[in-house]
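Journal club side-thread
Mid-discussion, someone asked how the predicted structure for our own chain would compare to the paper's figures. Pasting it here so we can look after the session.
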Amino acid sequence: MTALAAFPAAAMNAVPLSAPLHFDALLTPHRSLSRRGFFIVMGVVAAVNFTAGAFFMAKGAWPVLGFCGLEVALVWLAFRANYRAARAHETVQLSDDELRIRRVDARGRARAFSFQPYWVRLSLTENPDKSTHLHLLSHGRRLEVASFLSPAERADFARALEAALAGLKSARPA
């Protein structure tokens, strides 16, 4: 197996990792607005725009009502795009023989990457603006993981994965 190999999604689903899993994480983007919150926000936006549109229509500026409706539609489309992007996720699984990262984008397309766990290293770099990047390094190749986590969450994830890798490496007989 190569240090970093990309596989089609169908092949990765057909071949599960061998048990036991020493690390299994599902990473998803953070979305703070619940479904109920979305309906409340959209209700407020629609009510404010309808009220403003009705006021302007009463004053004789009837085209404003159409623009207010367009604004409500655009806000709804923006939220829809945001929720669609939230379907993206990443799984990180560590078994005795493989560290597998599987990425699923917002459209459901999956890509998987495989590392030999005894050769992989983690690199957490912090930029001057306090943003961080976590990379898996092996045999001259690098793969960024956990990119949609906050810097603090990314650091916690890096510590947990590093501990799992260290535990796996120390448990293997020489």
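Post-session note: The radius of gyration is 23 Å.
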